[in-house]
Design a protein that fits this description.
mainly alpha; Rossmann fold; 5 strands; globular
Length: 569
């Protein structure tokens, strides 16, 4: 409802109350309209008056809760919605609203029960399916979430939000062509649907269509000039010179203390990439410092003690005897290949080379190994392997293989999973697939740290914002990988990024031989592959090998002294 319509509706409510001050329905509607207009105190008073006039009316209690939701007072709102469903146990709207408020309060089990109850009462509620799907994503139940979004889209094909949420889930599973189509549907249904345009832009980036992606981000910016995600992504993607007005807007937004820290971080990372690509190291460093400071303020610092405890637990638990005592676990297939290493260490390039071989398939960064570990041990997934017996190992192996093979051609000799942090779960991988192979990607410490620091990673990756934290991460990772080299009953091949870009054919032959396959020269044409790439390296792996990223840190030395301090020669 636009502003003019809201004012007209408010005038109608006022007129109705002049005729009958006891009209509870008019008070209810007036409360919602006042809340939408930002007149909080009057809104609460009107909604409470409706409850006083009709204390047994579930709708009045629910609308009072909706007023509090608009004020972001979710605890009070949840109490109102609870009263509404107590007054009328068959009030589906009340159950939906209660579930939504409980989700915002971080009470997922109660939220799940309330949303399910709403659907039992009314199975045609597309909005409830969307909220339930979002809740299931947060609890890592991705298959069930996907089903919820599919149902929402079937129930209401005109619902752009349902289409885009379904598309986002498909994209997270690597089904980018289908996701692209659904994102296009969502923005056709609602050209103002920002989430759909951003999702379509990201999908097109992953599919290698830079011009199409830029068009999506410009479309968002034409409607919302300072949109942080669109602005940051456009700057990161631009290959030519940015318009002065765009750079001016981005720099102003980066310094705007009224913006959220996350918005400033997104814009800063985009600026850093733009300047880095143009060889403007000083400007890129300045933008990177601002971006990482903003991200750190918003997301918090890296918990070094918790990280050390995790590494120590894995090393203490998974010794040679641990694996000797579990011979015969898992499945005998040697199809899975785990490509691990720190982010930005060459894992994407390695997979792109191997995926160009006709006998191999690249599955991308699968979330399934850590997801299965979390199902076994939700509070400490890195300890999952010590809670798996022989039967469970085979059950988990079948579940993982289903995800690994999804989308792969039949008869693949090897399928790669390049989730870098699977180095935490190599113990579990060894129990599920004792014949699997591991390719470990390594890169020079300073180049690797700088590449991570300048990248817009998920805010949960707290280590990425500080060079000291990155050094601590690297120490623990190297300690853990040294341990796996000693005790893991899987073959591990180390591949150095510098050697790979320096002589791609020699290293590609090493990897193909390690995977027991005949050499195929198509591995050298990896840059011509049209496969989707869903990592920050999506553009680099679509180019011929170049060595410019070796020694990348050197031009930044004068502007980032903390890098050399954290990683002394």
């Amino acid at each position: 409802m636009d502003r003019g319509a809201e004012l007209e509706a408010l005038e109608l409510c006022d007129a109705a109350l002049l005729v009958d001050p006891g009209d509870a329905g008019a008070h209810r509607q007036r409360g919602l309209l006042l809340a939408a207009a930002g007149r909080d105190r009057e809104a609460v008073a009107a909604a409470q008056r409706a409850c006083e006039l009709q204390p047994q009316d579930a709708r009045a209690a629910s609308d009072l809760g909706r007023v509090h939701v608009m004020r972001e007072r979710f605890e009070i709102a949840a109490r109102c919605f609870h009263l509404a469903v107590t007054l009328d146990r068959r009030f589906a709207d009340g159950w939906h609203n209660l579930g939504t408020a409980l989700r915002r309060l971080g009470r997922p089990e109660e939220a799940f029960a309330a949303l399910k109850h709403a659907l039992v009462l009314d199975g045609s509620r597309s909005g409830t399916y969307i909220n339930l799907g979002a809740l299931l994503i947060e609890s890592q139940q991705l298959d069930d979430a996907l089903e919820c979004f599919e149902r929402a889209a079937r129930l209401d094909p005109t619902l752009a939000h349902a289409q885009s949420r379904l598309a986002a889930q498909l994209a997270s599973r690597g089904k980018l062509q289908r996701a692209e189509g659904l994102f296009r549907q969502s923005v056709t249904l609602d050209p103002r649907h920002t989430e759909g345009w951003l999702g379509l832009g990201q999908a097109l980036e992953d599919l290698g269509d830079a011009d199409g992606a830029l068009g999506c981000y410009r479309n968002v910016l034409a409607r919302e000039a300072g949109h942080a995600v669109a602005l940051g992504r456009q700057l990161a993607l631009l290959r030519g010179e940015a318009a002065p007005a765009l750079l001016q807007a981005a720099n102003a937004a980066l310094e705007d203390t009224h913006r959220t820290d996350e918005a400033r971080a997104l814009i800063g990372y985009g600026l850093a990439k733009y300047h880095d690509r143009r060889g403007e190291s000083a400007a890129a460093a300045t933008a990177g410092i601002a971006a990482n400071a903003a991200r750190r303020r918003g997301a918090g610092a890296f918990d070094r003690a918790a990280f050390d405890a995790r590494v120590d637990t894995i090393i203490r638990t998974c010794d040679a005897d641990f694996f000797d005592q579990r011979r015969g676990y898992g499945l005998g297939t040697d199809q899975p290949v785990f490509i691990v290493g720190l982010p930005r260490s060459g894992t994407t390039l390695t997979e792109q080379i191997l995926a160009s071989h006709p006998l191999f398939h690249g599955a991308g960064e699968l979330p399934d190994l850590p997801r299965l570990a979390a199902k076994v041990m939700p509070t400490a997934p890195w300890t999952a392997c010590s809670h798996v017996d022989a039967g469970k190992s085979r059950e988990l192996a079948f579940a993982y293989l289903k995800a690994l093979r999804d989308g792969a051609p039949r008869g693949c000799l090897r399928i790669t999973d390049k989730a870098p942090f699977n180095f935490f779960q190599l113990g579990l991988a060894a129990l599920l697939f004792p014949q699997a192979r591991v390719i470990h990607c390594r890169r020079g410490a300073r180049d690797n740290a700088l590449s991570i620091w300048m990248e817009n990673f998920n805010p949960d990756q707290h280590y990425a914002t500080d060079f000291g934290d990155l050094a601590h991460l690297r120490d623990g990772y190297e300690r853990l990988m040294a341990h796996w080299h000693e005790v893991l009953p899987l073959e591990i091949l180390d591949v150095d990024y510098e050697a790979l870009v320096g002589d791609v054919e020699t290293q590609a032959r090493r990897m193909v031989e390690f995977l027991d396959a005949p050499w195929d020269r198509r591995c050298l044409d990896f840059h011509a592959s049209n496969r989707a790439v869903q990592t920050p390296s999506r553009w680099q792996v679509r180019q011929r090998i170049y060595t410019g990223s070796v020694g990348r840190w050197k031009p930044y030395a004068p502007y980032l002294p903390a890098l050399e301090e954290a990683f002394p020669a």
